[in-house]
């Protein structure tokens, strides 16, 4: 089975590594072009590119997925199957090319949480469970026929980053199971529109800065979930002494009070907390504008409230 793998971030590397270690014939890897990043704007290579180069895999980095040269290169490779993990939206000319089609691995239990940030939104919404889905690509994003799914629990204090690190391994395992199902013709495709009948679908759109700003007049648990769902990236935002504060980890205190939401309290030694609609959020791990990320104890050693 000749396979082309398409992916960009670290999440996709786990799947590519699983395929390579299982001995599958990865005839090419498609990933994002290098782009300038960081203070020095040095060219940054995607995690998938770094893996592909280290393992001597053929690499394609098209700027545009409809580029005639890229399309011709794919046609000449004559893949039987394409696998997509955390990549861009593909044009039909690409996803419809291989005789066995194109499989996508998505970080949710479809049809729930279609979109760019399924892990973040599942945690932000306080879900107790999430999972991974393999499905066949078609026109509308994340709507193709489901092949296999696997669910797993989300811990009540688990961050999106921690869920991500577990999910990438579970997803890689499910992908291997899916390809094995293709080989022995045991997969039964399930249309998503059947699963989504009379079900309220939750979506997972791209996260923008306004999503990250904490609204302190919300409930304690909603704010705690927002912080978890945005940790470690891009991080939940608020202000402290006029400077931007990113909060990566928090704890809840449920206690009725008369304080204005967003009021800050600290003993200067062991805690810093913000008043919410129905209690307090204790900041445990943070980064103040111009400073490095640190624990609350380290932060308070040098912090003098204005």
Summary, kept brief:
With 306 residues, the chain is α/β, with parallel strands linked by helices.
Write the layout of secondary structure elements.
Layout: E1 2-7, H1 10-21, E2 25-30, E3 35-37, E4 42-44, H2 47-54, E5 59-60, H3 68-77, E6 81-85, H4 92-95, E7 102-106, H5 118-124, E8 129-136, E9 146-153, H6 160-183, H7 192-195, H8 209-212, H9 220-229, E10 236-240, E11 243-254, E12 264-266, E13 272-275, E14 279-288, E15 294-295, H10 296-301
Parallel strand pairs: 1-2, 1-6, 2-5, 6-7
Antiparallel strand pairs: 3-4, 7-8, 8-9, 10-11, 11-14, 12-13, 13-14, 14-15
Describe what this molecule looks like in 3D.
The strands form three sheets. A seven-stranded mixed beta sheet has the order 5-2-1-6-7-8-9. Strands 10, 11, 12, 13, 14 and 15 form a six-stranded antiparallel beta sheet that branches. A hairpin with a 5-residue loop joins strand 14 and strand 15. The protein folds into two domains: 2-195, Formyl transferase, N-terminal domain (Rossmann fold, 3-Layer(aba) Sandwich), CATH 3.40.50.170; 209-301, Roll (Methionyl-tRNA Fmet Formyltransferase, Chain A, domain 2). The protein has helices at 10-21, 47-54, 68-77, 92-95, 118-124, 160-183, 192-195, 209-212, 220-229, 296-301, and strands at residues 2-7, 25-30, 35-37, 42-44, 59-60, 81-85, 102-106, 129-136, 146-153, 236-240, 243-254, 264-266, 272-275, 279-288, 294-295. With 306 residues, the chain is an alpha/beta fold. The model has no long low-confidence stretch (mean pLDDT 95). Helix 5 (118-124) packs antiparallel against helix 9. It is 29% helix and 27% strand.
């Amino acid at each position: 089975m000749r396979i082309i793998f398409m992916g960009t971030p670290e999440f996709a590397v786990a799947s590519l590594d699983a395929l390579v270690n299982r001995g599958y014939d990865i005839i090419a890897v498609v990933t994002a072009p290098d782009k300038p990043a960081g203070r020095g704007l040095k060219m940054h290579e995607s995690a998938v590119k770094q893996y592909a180069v280290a393992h001597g895999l053929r690499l394609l980095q098209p700027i545009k997925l409809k580029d005639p040269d890229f399309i011709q290169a794919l046609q000449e490779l004559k893949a039987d199957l394409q696998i997509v993990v955390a990549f861009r939206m593909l044009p039909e000319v690409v996803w419809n090319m291989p005789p066995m089609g194109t499989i996508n691995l998505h970080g949710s239990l479809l049809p729930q949480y279609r979109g760019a940030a399924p892990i973040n939104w599942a945690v932000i919404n306080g879900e107790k469970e999430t999972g991974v889905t393999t499905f066949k690509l078609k026109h509308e994003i994340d709507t193709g026929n489901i092949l296999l799914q696997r669910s797993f629990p989300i811990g009540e204090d688990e961050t999106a980053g921690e869920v991500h690190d577990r999910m990438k391994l579970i997803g890689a395992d499910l992908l291997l199971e899916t390809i094995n199902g293709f080989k022995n013709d045991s997969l039964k495709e399930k249309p998503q529109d059947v699963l989504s009948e009379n079900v309220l679908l939750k979506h997972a759109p791209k996260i923008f800065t306004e999503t990250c700003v904490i609204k302190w007049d919300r409930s304690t648990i909603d704010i705690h979930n927002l912080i978890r769902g945005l940790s470690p990236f891009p991080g939940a935002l608020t202000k402290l002494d006029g400077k931007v504060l990113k909060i990566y980890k928090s704890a809840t205190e449920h206690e009725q009070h008369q304080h204005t939401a967003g009021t800050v309290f600290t003993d200067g030694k062991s805690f810093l907390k913000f008043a919410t609609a129905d209690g307090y959020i204790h900041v445990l791990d943070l980064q103040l504008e111009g400073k490095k990320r640190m624990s609350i104890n380290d932060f308070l050693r040098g912090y003098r409230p204005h």
